[in-house]
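User: Before I run my own analysis I want an independent prediction to cross-check against. Here's the chain; please return only the structure tokens and, at the end, one sentence I can use as a sanity check.
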Amino acid sequence: MAIVIALRRIDREWKVVLVGGLAGGMLEFAMSLIQQYLLGNRSWNYANEPLNIGGRTTVPFMLFRGLLCYLIVRFILPLVLWLVHLIDDTWHTRLATILLAWILIDAVVTLPAIFLYGQRANGVVSDNWFAQHIRRLSMTTSCACISRTCACESHRGSSGTIYRPQARSAVMAHGRHARLAPS
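Assistant: Structure tokens:
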């Protein structure tokens, strides 16, 4: 968002698209590296896509991000700023505090869930109370059963054992849970 806000000062449309696309591509590349080196896994791999950059991002996606930045800077951001100026000054701090709390709560749930996902992808299933609680919170809308060991509550057998599917090659999403397609 900081980049998008900074882009609104650029007067040429093509510069907004270029800088927004490059910034989005660099961010995606950096997040892929950080995830790989901190957690030992990767959530995406564009190695088979045309014009990929190290399999971590692609030029077409960067162009799309640049166009999206242009739309946000020229149309959405002015509307949001207009709406913000309609809010009474006494509510600005309250709303900022509420949004900050929301972001912090999301981070407290998301970061451990990403860490547990990395462990599951490496074959390590944590089953302590904290992991169970985070898994319960993070798996309410989706299930990342892409490793050989699935620790989702709905994939546990009646005896409480963890479902261990056979090795598969591709992931296909079905409903609330990811299902591994046969090789």
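Sanity check: The mean pLDDT is 76.
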